[in-house]
Amino acid sequence: MSKLYLVPTPIGNLEDMSFRAVRILKEVNFILAEDTRTSKKLMQHYQIETSLSPYHKFNEHKQLETLVKRISVAESVALISDAGTPGISDPGFLIVRECIQAGVDIECLPGATALIPALVDSGLPNDRFIFEGFLPHKKGRKKRIDRLTDEDRTLVFYESPHRLVKTLNQLADALGNDRQAAVARELTKIYEEVRRNSLSELAAYYTTHPPKGEIVLVVKGLVKKQSQSSDS
Ligand code: SAM
Predict the structure, then answer these.
(1) Which CATH number applies to 115-219?
(2) Whose CA is closest to atom 20 on ligand 1?
């Protein structure tokens, strides 16, 4: 039976590759990569000579059938994205679903992703959380934010630096200025920074200090007041 491995790759620090991830990338018949130029650096660093084929959001739908056929006749294939775990705010879901239907075995290796270190670094409760990925830029954005007002689990968002202040302000309006949050920036890289404060203080800070790099925003969930009846 053929097998598709989903292989996490570093989100900044090249040392964050597991021994198994390197071995599998060396052993598979070919590697599907989100951006073959970006992945070549990783391949060179780990002396991986396996051939790379492009698989990105622009050809994801069109190539799906052909790719699943290619995978079905191969012994094993790996999917990698530019950084982190494939399928997490990156292409991957569609090919996994199609491969499952075609009887291809799927195995996702554990490894680098931005959301888990950001959540743990935030110091906010991490026993229950929801991952919201990127908020829509325009259509549906307000609705998505409004749906979160009663959410009591910790919220995790991916955000771009030029939209961070807008998002912090909109979340402060919807969830309250004092709601605690953390901005995790450039994780695993030289300028890694985690800033913890209320939504409005973070918005004020990043208005005067425009952020650069990659960002995960973590927001505390709603602390529900215990009702009189449940106290008694
Ligand atoms: N597949 C990736 C993962 O598993 O985390 C996510 C890919 S998504 C296209 C890219 C987003 O992930 C960035 O815009 C940022 O929100 C987050 N991200 C990726 N690397 C990061 C880093 N080193 N520090 C903080 N956030 C990061």
Answers:
(1) 3.30.950.10
(2) 11
